[in-house]
Amino acid sequence: TWTRxxxxxxxxxxxxxxAFMLALAGQIAYLVHQVSFLAQYLGSQQAxxxxxxxxxASIMGRLVIGSFVDRMDKRYVTIGCVLLQGSAVVTxxxxxxxxxxYLCTFFFGLTMGPLLMMQSLITGECFxxxxxxxxxxxxxxxxxxxxxxxxxxxxMIYDATQSYTLSFLLFASASFxxxxxxxxxxxxxxxx
Length: 192
Prior knowledge:
Helix content is 83%, strand content 0%. It starts with a helix and ends in a 10-residue tail after the last helix. By secondary structure, it is mainly α.
């Protein structure tokens, strides 16, 4: 059983915390600003419809990935999700084509549910079920800061530039960087 302090001294703890903090910052920033961003190109009603597409894709992503994730290295599944998320956001930053906007919204949604699921799965794999609540709760305190500040940062950048391009590039980069960080989330050895 890992204590909070023992877990915090491991590379796996910080790898999970930082990777998901960055990934969630980008994810929640896009979700909060999704309708405002897409309304520029699709109008308010169609932009609001994309929220349903994102939600449906999120459910689909969980079901599909949930069907095979236990047979794979969860780090690689997470890497695939954050790379797809970052790629969708980069494409959205530079495209105004209606089909591309809908497709990227769908692909972004595919990563949404699985990312939340992967954080718990990797934490459990690295620190075990008896320590899960303690370690997961502590990791959650760190990752939630990304979810809290991501939309604020995106809004501040939009207010300064009147464009989402810079904030989308920033958060796509955060997603890509999280793909590198999560690689180091290997089960640590508990030192007595």
